[in-house]
């Protein structure tokens, strides 16, 4: 609807825009899947199409809070923590859990984004933005994901273009 806040993500451009109607409120670099765009379970790809934010996790957690299974572990990822486990799939600070809106494309069966645990989430500063390196999720800088989290709500439309 005109004037509503929504998110647009471009896999080729590795960018995320927060929009109100067609007006850009903010934009950030992101990092999507190393394996490129795709919807299949276990593909390690970032799903395309229309989604909504189904759940928002991590309100009030500190910058760098580590999540496993969508629960804070009590750890804070800093340079030393990252250096001990550089290959870990770090999910930090905030989680915006996405649910697909297009049956057969990104919802239900083997293409269900929510069952694939596709998130917009924070990541260690050591990981570059603008380069596809994730295992399917959309990674953002921690400060950026906090700013985005504070400006959206469950039900916010998210369109991912490949």
Helical content (DSSP H or I, runs of 4+):
under 10%
Largest sheet: 8 strands, mixed
What is the fourth-level CATH superfamily? L,D-transpeptidase catalytic domain-like
- The overall number of domains is 1
Count every helix, treating DSSP H or I runs of 4 or more residues as helices.
2
Q: Which oligomeric state applies?
A: single chain
3D shape: globular
CATH class: Mainly Beta
CATH topology, by name, is: L,D-transpeptidase catalytic domain-like
**Quantity of strands, as a count:** 10
- From the helix content, strand content and strand pairing, which structural class follows? mainly beta
Examine the secondary-structure arrangement and name the CATH architecture.
Beta Barrel
InterPro entries: LD-transpeptidase, LD_TPept_cat_dom, Transpep_catalytic_dom
Pathway: Cell wall biogenesis; peptidoglycan biosynthesis
Family: Belongs to the YkuD family.
Keywords: Cell shape, Cell wall biogenesis/degradation, Glycosyltransferase, Hydrolase, Peptidoglycan synthesis, Transferase
Structure explained in plain terms:
This protein is mostly beta strands and 162 residues long. It has a single domain (5-161), classed as L,D-transpeptidase catalytic domain-like (Beta Barrel), CATH 2.40.440.10. The protein contains 2 helices and 10 strands, in the order E-E-E-E-E-E-H-E-E-E-H-E. It has helices at residues 79-84, 142-149, and strands at 5-10, 15-20, 23-29, 49-57, 65-68, 71-76, 92-100, 119-122, 138-140, 157-161. The protein has an 8-stranded mixed sheet, covered by helices on one side. It has a two-stranded antiparallel ribbon with strand order 5-6. Strand 1 (5-10) and strand 2 form a beta hairpin. The two termini are 23 Å apart. The model has no long low-confidence stretch (mean pLDDT 95).
């Amino acid at each position: 609807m005109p004037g509503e806040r929504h998110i647009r993500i471009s896999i080729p451009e590795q960018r995320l825009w927060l929009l109100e109607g067609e007006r850009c409120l903010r934009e950030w670099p992101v990092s999507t899947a190393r394996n490129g765009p795709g919807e299949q379970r276990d593909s390690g790809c970032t799903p395309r199409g229309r989604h909504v934010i189904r759940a928002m996790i991590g309100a009030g957690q500190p910058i760098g809070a580590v999540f496993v299974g969508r629960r804070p572990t009590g750890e804070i990822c800093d340079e030393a923590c990252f250096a001990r486990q550089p290959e870990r799939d770090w999910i930090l600070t905030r989680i915006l859990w996405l649910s697909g809106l297009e049956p057969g494309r990104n919802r239900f069966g083997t293409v269900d984004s929510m069952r694939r645990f596709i998130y917009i989430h924070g990541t260690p500063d050591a990981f570059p933005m603008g380069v596809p390196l994730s295992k399917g999720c959309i990674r953002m800088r921690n400060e950026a994901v906090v700013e985005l989290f504070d400006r959206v709500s469950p039900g916010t439309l998210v369109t991912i273009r490949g």
